[in-house]
Amino acid sequence: MFDGRICCSGSRRQRHIHCTVRAPAAEAQNIGQRVVSGIVTDANSALLAGATVFLKDLKSKTIRSYTSDAKGRFRFAQVNMAEDHELWAEKDGKKSPTKTVSSWDTRKEFEPS
Fold first, then answer.
1. Alpha-carbon distance 3 to 38, whole Å?
2. CA 87 to CA 23: how far, in whole Å?
3. Secondary structure percentages of the chain, helix, strand, coil, to 5
4. At CA 65, angle to CA 13 and CA 20, rounded to 5?
5. What is the mean pLDDT of residues 75-93?
6. HSE on the CB side for 90, CA within 13 Å?
7. Is the pLDDT assigned to residue 75 strictly greater than 70?
8. Is pLDDT of 21 > 50?
9. CB atoms within 10 A of CB 9
């Protein structure tokens, strides 16, 4: 679940990245593929375009990336539900805290909160 903040030190203005999403209903099984999607926003809840969102498969160590669109949206399709993943965003050299997408989560459409 990704609700990360990126706090920048060393500058007068701090910048945060948040992800605002709604959680879909759970499915009965966690086999197959899922979609991981959400919205990246700043500390003032403004949509953050151009943030790079990363999704790392913890078993294979492969990392996928997606650049948030003009409305701050990101979307990863065909994410293996049988593996754990880490999700985080980066923008202008700042990184959000990492969130886990667990293989125990049975949702076919995962939207971090």
1. 10
2. 16
3. 0, 40, 60
4. 55
5. 94
6. 9
7. yes
8. no
9. 6
| Nearest residue to 59 (alpha-carbon basis) of 103, 106, 99, 90 | 103
Q: Tell me which H or E stretch contains 53.
A: strand 52-57
92 φ, ψ to 5°? 50, 45
Mean pLDDT (the chain) is 80
pTM of the model: 0.73
Beta bridge pairs of residue 84: none
pLDDT value at 23 more than 50: no
How far is 56 from 95, CA to CA, in rounded Å? 14
Q: Give the chain's radius of gyration (CA, Å).
A: 14
The full length of the chain comes to 113
Burial category of 14 from C-beta neighbours within 10 Å (exposed 0-12, middle 13-18, buried 19 and up): middle
Residue 95 three-state SS: strand
